[in-house]
Design brief:
- By secondary structure, this protein is of the alpha+beta class.
- It contains 17 helices and eight strands.
- A hairpin with a 5-residue loop joins β5 and β6.
- The longest helix has 22 residues.
- It is globular, with a radius of gyration of 21 Å.
- It starts with 5 loop residues before the first helix and ends in a 6-residue tail after the last helix.
Length: about 425
């Protein structure tokens, strides 16, 4: 693929858009970002705050620890952190620089300021509106469809910024419709690694660091440590354990950044850390690792582009299939091995539902990475799932489209029921 090819330039732009740093689970961070931007527009700390969010935001914020808040959880905590200590110019690292004094201010703010939360459904799965008021003045910020995609800024009845909603998902956004496995494969083989070296080195550095921290510390259910103690330290177990450990750390208060994929830190960890671990074990060298990461990242993004930002379909499944493809490439696999690895992996674990961000994400990541590795081993042993086997279609693109439709449209009702269960199951009956 020539550098002048529109596909080459588009794939580079997709990677630049997707592989960005974030601290903490990205949904509460998006909420903190909106709250920080509203406070900036208001020009004062608010006396009351109104938050309107879609059900999927409730699902993904309710149970996860917000970084730099002394282990607070939930929508009010995320908003308070953004209001008190947020630096909106940092976007998904909006609350990465919080002083001890600001942590105490966040606590006092939550005790003294009314923060109301309303569940709204607008037709957008990802929807956050934060309205902050001080005296007679107010400021409103709305984010739709993507974590930093501000579509409205309003102050005291005056519209300061507005983006038409039908334009919001695509404006200045690289065209994901150009993604397909044949072209991804060609790009992986021909890309000038100097064009992606900085992006991928940052992914390797950040995501490896939080995976190591997850194994050293006591985070969540410590899935990584459980795997290593139970099954030993062979490469397959290490690949799963390190990815799970990275997730456990970021879901449970670790204040280290990750490089995300498809808007998710867990997916960023899942499609990179197992590939990095296999490359070390195989002695693959940086050049081959870079190409394996290109394959894994773009495979995950391709799948998620069909599904959308948030769904009842667990994003770790897409990332685990991507990791399986990257591992197959490191082990010498060609195009046929890779596409069959992906299909096999998806056939195994596409039933995993997303019930929000929390400690069990790490276990789902482990299962998804395992499915990716098993998918490759199946093909090496002459075994594969074929078109007509359940949701497996006759080719890779049809399978990805079909599962995308299942995740985006077919599981809408499932998503609503999961949200109801999560709200009902809360002992405090709060978001």
């Amino acid at each position: 693929m020539e550098k002048t090819d529109i596909r080459y330039q588009t794939y580079l732009k997709i990677l630049q858009e997707e592989l960005v740093p974030a601290m903490g689970c990205t949904e509460p961070i998006a909420l903190a970002y909106a709250a920080a931007e509203a406070r900036k527009v208001l020009g004062a700390f608010p006396e009351n705050v109104k938050i309107e969010v879609s059900g999927s935001i409730i699902k993904n914020v309710k149970s996860v620890i917000v970084p730099n808040t002394n282990h607070m959880k939930g929508i009010p905590a995320a908003a308070a952190a953004g209001i008190i200590a947020g630096r909106p110019e940092r976007e998904l690292e909006v609350i990465s620089e919080v002083t001890d004094g600001e942590r105490e201010e966040i606590r006092r703010f939550l005790e003294n300021v009314k923060i109301s939360v309303e569940h709204v459904e607008t037709g957008h799965v990802f929807d956050i509106t934060v309205t902050e008021a001080c005296g007679e003045e107010y400021a409103k910020v709305r984010i739709v469809d993507r974590h930093t995609n501000i579509v409205l800024i309003e102050k005291n009845g005056q519209i300061l910024f507005r983006k038409e909603l039908e334009e919001a998902p695509a404006e200045n956004h690289a065209d994901r419709s150009l993604l397909n496995m044949q072209d991804i494969w060609e790009f992986v083989q021909t890309a000038d690694t100097e064009d992606v070296k900085e992006l991928l080195e940052r992914q390797i550095r950040y995501n490896s660091a939080i995976a190591e921290e997850g194994l050293l510390g006591d985070y969540g259910a410590n899935i990584g440590s459980v795997l290593l103690r139970t099954y030993g330290s062979d490469i397959r177990t290490r690949a799963k354990a390190k990815a799970a450990a990275g997730s456990d750390a970021r879901m449970n208060g670790c204040e280290m950044p990750v490089i995300i994929n498809s808007g998710s830190g867990n997916q960023g960890i899942t499609c990179s850390v197992p590939v990095i671990e296999y490359a070390k074990d195989l002695g693959s060298g940086k050049e081959k690792l870079y190409r394996a990461l290109l394959l894994s990242n773009l495979t995950a993004i391709h799948q998620k582009s069909e599904i959308g930002t948030l769904s009842a379909y667990c994003g770790a499944v897409s990332a685990g299939a991507g990791a399986g493809a990257g591992i197959a490439y490191l082990c010498g696999g060609g195009y046929q091995e890779i596409i069959h690895t992906i299909v096999n992996a998806l056939a195994i674990v596409s039933g995993i539902v997303c019930d929000g961000a929390k400690a069990s994400c790490a276990a789902k990541i482990s299962a998804s990475v395992d499915a990716g590795i098993l998918g490759y081993q199946m093909y090496l042993n002459g075994q594969e799932f074929k078109g007509g086997d359940g949701i497996v279609m006759n080719d890779i693109e049809a399978t990805i489209r079909g599962i995308g439709h299942l995740g985006k449209e077919g599981m809408k009702g499932t998503n609503e029921e999961i949200i109801k269960l999560m709200i009902q199951g809360s002992s405090e009956k709060k978001y």
